[in-house]
C-alpha cells in the first residue's frame, strides 16, 4: 500500500472511522459513528469473508468443524469492524475492543490457511514472491477507483480467488489477511491516540455538562436581581470536621464528575465534605 493510502487509513481511524454514510440531517453527536463502509480495512475483510466461504465450499468437507471455525473467524474479522464503528458514538473503549477482536479473529484465520497448506504439503508464498507482490499491488489500484462496491473489489482479485488450484486461493487469501492486519494495526493505533488525546465518550459528556453548567451560572450571575449565591451562602452548613462554613463545589473527575457537593472552605487544609 502506498503512502497516500496509508495516510487516508490513519486519518479515518483518527476520527473514529468518520461519519461518512450517516444522515446529515441527524442531530449532532459528541462523537461521530458509522462510515465503516469507506474503510479499506472493512473492504478487505469483506473480500476475506466472501473468499473464505467460497474456499470452504470448493475445497473442504462442509461437515468438518474446521469449516465453521474458518467462516466464523472470517465473519468476525468483518463484522466487528462495523459493530465497533457503530458503537463509537457511545463508547470509544468498546470500539477499540471490537477492532482488536477483529484483528485477533484474522490471526486465527491466518493459522487455518497456513495449516491447510502445510498439512497437504503445499507451498506457501514468500512475501517477496512475484505472485504475492501482484496480489498486494491490486490493493493500490482498487483504492484509486471511484466505484468502491464489493463486487468491484472481488472482480479485481478473481484471477486468484477463483483459481482451480486450492494452494493459489489459500495463498491469495493469506496475502489479503496480512493486508487487513496491517490496516487494522494502523486503525488501532489511531483509535488509541485519539482516546489518549481527546478522551472517550464519558469524558466528553462530563466536559460538555460542565461547560453547560458554567454557561448557565454566568448567565445567572449577569442578572442583578439573582440572589442565588447569597441564598446558597445563607443556607450553607458548617464543616463536620472543623466547623467552618462549607461552600458549593463541583466534582471534576471520577464517577460523579459534574455533580455538586458541599466542601470545606478551608480546603486543602481541611477535606470535610457533605452531600448536597
What tags apply to this protein structure?
mainly alpha, 10 helices, disordered N terminus, 2 domains
Q: Report the sheet with the most strands, covering strand number, pairing sense and barrel closure.
A: 3 strands, antiparallel
Per DSSP E runs of 2 or more residues, the count of β-strands stands at 3
Integer average pLDDT: 80
Record the strand order, biggest sheet: 1-2-3
Provide the low-confidence segments as ranges.
Answer: 1-30
Query: What is the oligomeric state here?
Result: single chain
Number of H/I helices: 10
Number of domains: 2
Strand content: under 5%
Give the SSE string. Answer: HHHHHHHHHHEEE
Through-space gap between termini: 58 Å
Radius of gyration: 27 Å
Anisotropy-based shape:
elongated
Derived from helix and strand composition plus strand pairing, the structural class reads mainly alpha
Percent of residues in helices comes to 55-70%
General description of the model:
With 276 residues, the chain is mainly alpha-helical. It has two domains: 3-199, no CATH class; 206-275, no CATH class. Helix content is 62%, strand content 5%. The protein is built from ten helices and three strands; from the N terminus they run ααααααααααβββ. The chain has helices spanning 3-14, 40-59, 65-87, 92-119, 130-143, 150-156, 158-161, 166-198, 201-221, 228-235, and strands at 246-250, 260-264, 273-275. The protein has a three-stranded antiparallel β-sheet with strand order 1-2-3, with no helix packed on it. Helix 1 crosses helix 8, helix 4 (92-119) runs antiparallel to helix 8 (166-198) and helix 5 (130-143) crosses helix 8. It is elongated. The model is unreliable at 1-30 (pLDDT under 50).
Amino acid at each position: 500500500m502506498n503512502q497516500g493510502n496509508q495516510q487516508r487509513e490513519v486519518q479515518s481511524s483518527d476520527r473514529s472511522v468518520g461519519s461518512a454514510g450517516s444522515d446529515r440531517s441527524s442531530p449532532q453527536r459528541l462523537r461521530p459513528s458509522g462510515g465503516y463502509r469507506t474503510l479499506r480495512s472493512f473492504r478487505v475483510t469483506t473480500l476475506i469473508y466472501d473468499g473464505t466461504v467460497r474456499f470452504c465450499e470448493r475445497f473442504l468437507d462442509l461437515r468438518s468443524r474446521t469449516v465453521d471455525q474458518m467462516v466464523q473467524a472470517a465473519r468476525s474479522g468483518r463484522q466487528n469492524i462495523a459493530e465497533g464503528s457503530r458503537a463509537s458514538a457511545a463508547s470509544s473503549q468498546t470500539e477499540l475492543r471490537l477492532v482488536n477482536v477483529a484483528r485477533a479473529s484474522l490471526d486465527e484465520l491466518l493459522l487455518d490457511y497456513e495449516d491447510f497448506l502445510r498439512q497437504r504439503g503445499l507451498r506457501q508464498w514468500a512475501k517477496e514472491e512475484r505472485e504475492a507482490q501482484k496480489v498486494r499491488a491490486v490493493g493500490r489500484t482498487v483504492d484509486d477507483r471511484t466505484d468502491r462496491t464489493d463486487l468491484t473489489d472481488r472482480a479485481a482479485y478473481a484471477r486468484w480467488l477463483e483459481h482451480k488450484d486450492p494452494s493459489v486461493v489459500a495463498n491469495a487469501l493469506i496475502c489479503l489477511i496480512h493486508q487487513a492486519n496491517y490496516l487494522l494495526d494502523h486503525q488501532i493505533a489511531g483509535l488509541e491516540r485519539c482516546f489518549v488525546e481527546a478522551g472517550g465518550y464519558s469524558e466528553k459528556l462530563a466536559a460538555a455538562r460542565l461547560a453547560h453548567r458554567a454557561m448557565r451560572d454566568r448567565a445567572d450571575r449577569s442578572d442583578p436581581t439573582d440572589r442565588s449565591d447569597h441564598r446558597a451562602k445563607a443556607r450553607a452548613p458548617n464543616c463536620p470536621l472543623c466547623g467552618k462554613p462549607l461552600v458549593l463545589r463541583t466534582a471534576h473527575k471520577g464517577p460523579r464528575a459534574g455533580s455538586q457537593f458541599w466542601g470545606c472552605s478551608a480546603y486543602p487544609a481541611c477535606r470535610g465534605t457533605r452531600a448536597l
